[in-house]
Design brief:
This protein is mostly helical. The protein has 13 helices and no strands. α5 runs parallel beside α7. The termini are far apart. The N terminus is likely disordered.
Length: 301
């Protein structure tokens, strides 16, 4: 009876650590899990390893998460399957895309895999493809997976990951367009860049709907950086060759004035990211960068 009570207490503490982690207190969750570990029963070891790995994963320390997740996989069962799912993400974040794809295939071929989980894995497959440079295919898979997810609330983290990957891809497309050309090409590239930014902004609102702090702060940072880069590139864009020296000076003054628009939008993104993180008490990797970007941009004349 005593052993049963101890086991129940341990399970309750594990549940408490999960709640602390979900609330965004990754340091507190890690501390509680580490304190608890010597008391964890053998039957709960896999669950402990999984949770410890997830905490490291969310703290953007994938190299630290990997051994915990592999340990959980070795113990097998449902916990092992969930750990493999997280390992795919961790290997993806480490840039080990071939290994991540192998682990994903192993998971997809698991006998008796819940059909509701198939679209979730398809999203991650799409994210992997985007990261591997197979952008068009990856985006198709992400969109297909997002459309087929039956319980978006339950799988909100992967939904957010997929939407962020689409946002990141749109932002990348815009950032690759240089504004160093002249005349017609400059206008064309600027239109395309604004179009890509508009797409990224729409996807930002889709990310916000997931209510996942990790992806919301990352998305606000990404869109803010894209606006800031547009402002910087506008300032240094060359005046039309047909202008006189005096006209070119006026052109540069006007362009600098127009650059204030995207620069202000960048600052708004950074401020909203910092404010949101404070509101939900989230301390993810993007938050410190948001603060740095906000201070840097605020200091610009």
């Amino acid at each position: 009876m005593t052993l049963l009570l101890v086991a129940a207490a341990m399970a309750g503490i594990l549940d408490q650590a999960i709640e602390i982690r979900r609330a965004g207190d990754l340091v507190g969750a890690a501390s509680l899990l580490d304190t608890l570990h010597p008391l964890v029963d053998e039957v709960d070891e896999g669950r402990w390893l999984l949770e410890r790995g997830i905490v490291e994963e969310l703290a953007w320390r994938p190299e630290a998460a990997e051994p915990y997740l592999r340990g959980a996989i070795e113990l097998g069962g449902d916990v092992g399957l969930e750990a493999r799912y997280h390992l795919v993400v961790v290997l993806d974040d480490l840039g080990r895309l071939v290994e991540a794809s192998g682990e994903l295939r192993a998971l997809q071929s698991t006998h008796g895999l819940n059909p509701d989980f198939v679209p979730v894995l398809r999203i991650e497959q799409g994210v992997l493809d985007v990261h591997a440079g197979r952008t068009a295919r990856g985006k198709r898979l992400i969109r297909r997976g997002l459309a087929d997810v039956k319980d978006a609330d339950r799988h909100s983290w992967m939904v957010g990951r997929g939407r962020f990957a689409l946002l990141d891809s749109a932002a990348d497309r815009g950032d690759r367009l240089s504004l160093t050309a002249r005349s017609a090409r400059l206008r064309r590239d600027l239109r395309e860049r604004v179009r890509a930014l508009s797409e990224a902004e729409k996807l930002l609102y889709e990310v916000i709907k997931t209510e996942e702090p990790e992806w919301i702060t990352s998305a606000l940072l990404r869109v803010g950086d894209t606006y800031a880069a547009l402002a910087d590139d506008l300032v240094v864009s060359p005046p039309p060759a047909s202008l006189t020296e005096e006209q070119a000076a006026i052109y540069r003054t006007e362009i600098a004035r127009k650059a204030e628009g995207p620069r202000t939008k960048a600052l708004i993104c950074y401020e909203r990211g910092v404010s949101y993180a404070k509101q939900v008490e989230w301390e993810g990797a993007a938050v410190s960068v948001l603060k740095e970007r906000r201070e840097l941009l605020s200091a610009k004349p």
